[in-house]
Amino acid sequence: MALVPRKKKRKDPALSLDGEAPVGVVKFSEVGIFLVERKMGSSRRSFLTELARKKGFRVEEQMSESVTHVVSENNAGHEVLELLEKQSGICRTEFTAALVDITWFSESMGAGKPLELENRHLLQVKRAAAGTIVVPVSPYACQRRTTLDNKNRLLTDALKILAENAELSANEGRYLAFTRASSVLKSLPYNVTKMDDLKEIPNLGDHSRKVIKEILEDGTCSEVQNLIQSESFQTRKQFTTIFGVGVKTADKWFREGLRTLDELRSSKIKLSKEQEAGLLYYEDLIKPVTKAEADLIRQIVEATVHRFRPAAVVTLTGGFRRGKEYGHDVDFLITHREEGKEEGLISQVISSLTAQKEMVNNVEPSRPCSNGSLAENEPRGIRLTSHAGTTQHITTAAAKEKDWKAVRVDLVVAPFGQYAYALLGWTGSRLFERDLRRYAKHFKHMSLSSHSLFDKKQNKFLPAATEEEIFAHLGLDYIPPQERHA
Ligand code: CTP
Ligand code: MN
Ligand code: MN
């Protein structure tokens, strides 16, 4: 018997014409479905939810005890478990629901009723054998979740020294090898205590493994200890900590016999404007910038930007966006919803800060993405040295004992259409960015930059309004900034 008059039934768009259950009427209450949004995407999830409900299935928005079938698409069992643990706080051992593939869902929809579960519908969950840790780890940093919770600091600090030394020696290959090794260890959710813990871990070459083994056995690595104590490493490293000094210059100065900053100051060596500012504010710039200082600088930058473009958007990027408490600088991305209104903004901002005597130095642009430095004067003032151009780095300062402290600030301006790409590109970490580009090139035949993503197969640029869309273009799981500390 019809529950509603026939006439109304015809008119009600919520009721299907082919005899299916009215929306909201659950035909199979014993089955509770939860659709996992990851990889499926929110619009497809909403579509499938509606479809199932129309057919009389019970679909839950949240994971709960009444869910019997967790349905996901293109996810591995352990990934779904991890996600559910994170979202619902339920421990994986307490899950009673079946983890099923989208095939079960599609077939059930086709049949108009929930089908019996078969083995082929079930997601496989890799279980660790007793004593060993099995975690699938990608060789690409952009496929790993790397938080600030580094469980292997002793190992990663040592590998970082080796990477720094390789970089100082302009050995890019070795620099990358040690950086990758260090990065993969940072992503591990466990503390490595024996070489067996690293059996399945990629990116660990013979040299890195030797270093790790030595540290696990002796607590230190002789090669690293020797480096730390070597004059060559110490001196060149110190020189590169001067703003505007790269590894080539540091190496040149070292070979010319310079050993200290004072020797450099009293030498007749011609310094660039950046290097002069770097040396002048050396003591300040070497100190880590705190989050509180970054927030203060943000207010100054925002106020100045808004003076010229009230509707411009200023976003904190770099390490602070990833959730770091300290940084070597503060990075900002500036854009304007009305494309074109961002043009000329950077030079106005820099001029304004200069006019306020907040800027001490102004350096001409060296490349399209240029930078500068600003230093805060008085309790709230800024002094800065800067480059002009579409993309800028500045060095600023926050009040301290001597009234102000020089802090380096990077300002990047992007047209609104490139905003998502600029945001992704300037949030870092360096290796995360590098691997995103590498992944795009090797697996998708796409070229990624801080401006755009070009699909070489389709021969076109792919627009994106959000970082999530860029990850989706690349077929990658979205990794939030807090998990990009690769
Ligand atoms: N970046 C870039 N080109 C540069 C400098 C930086 O594309 N010439 C991008 C990199 O992706 C980098 C991000 O900007 O990861 C931020 O750079 P940087 O400030 O050097 O590093 P942070 O991760 O912010 O680290 P820190 O906290 O030490 O500043
Ligand atoms: Mn930074
Ligand atoms: Mn920076």
The helix fraction, in percent, is 25-40%
Radius of gyration: 28 Å
The biggest beta sheet reads: 7 strands, mixed
Bound molecules: cytidine-5'-triphosphate, manganese (II) ion
Number of helices: 19
Write a short abstract of this structure.
The protein has 486 residues and is of the alpha/beta class. It has helices at 6-11, 42-54, 77-88, 102-111, 153-168, 172-186, 206-218, 222-229, 231-240, 247-255, 261-266, 273-280, 282-285, 291-308, 318-321, 345-355, 419-427, 430-444, 467-473, and strands at 32-35, 58-60, 69-72, 98-101, 289-290, 313-317, 326-327, 330-335, 361-363, 373-375, 383-387, 391-396, 406-413, 446-448, 453-455, 460-461.
What does this structure look like?
With 486 residues, the protein is of the alpha/beta class. The protein has five domains: 28-136, BRCT domain (Rossmann fold, 3-Layer(aba) Sandwich), CATH 3.40.50; 142-227, Orthogonal Bundle (DNA polymerase, domain 1), CATH 1.10.150.110; 230-270, DNA polymerase, domain 1, CATH 1.10.150.20; 289-413, Beta Polymerase, domain 2; 418-483, Beta Polymerase, domain 3 (2-Layer Sandwich), CATH 3.30.210.10. It is built from 19 helices and 16 strands. The chain has helices at 6-11, 42-54, 77-88, 102-111, 153-168, 172-186, 206-218, 222-229, 231-240, 247-255, 261-266, 273-280, 282-285, 291-308, 318-321, 345-355, 419-427, 430-444, 467-473, and strands spanning 32-35, 58-60, 69-72, 98-101, 289-290, 313-317, 326-327, 330-335, 361-363, 373-375, 383-387, 391-396, 406-413, 446-448, 453-455, 460-461. Strands 6, 8, 9, 10, 11, 12 and 13 form a seven-stranded mixed beta sheet that branches. Strand 1 (32-35), helix 2 and strand 2 (58-60) form a beta-alpha-beta unit. Helix 5 (153-168) packs antiparallel against helix 6 and helix 14 packs across helix 16. The longest helix is centred in the middle third of the chain and has 18 residues, at 291-308. The termini are far apart. Residues 1-19 and 359-393 have low confidence and may be disordered. Cytidine-5'-triphosphate binds at residues 318-319, 324, 327-329, 331, 410, 425-426, 428-430, 433, 450.
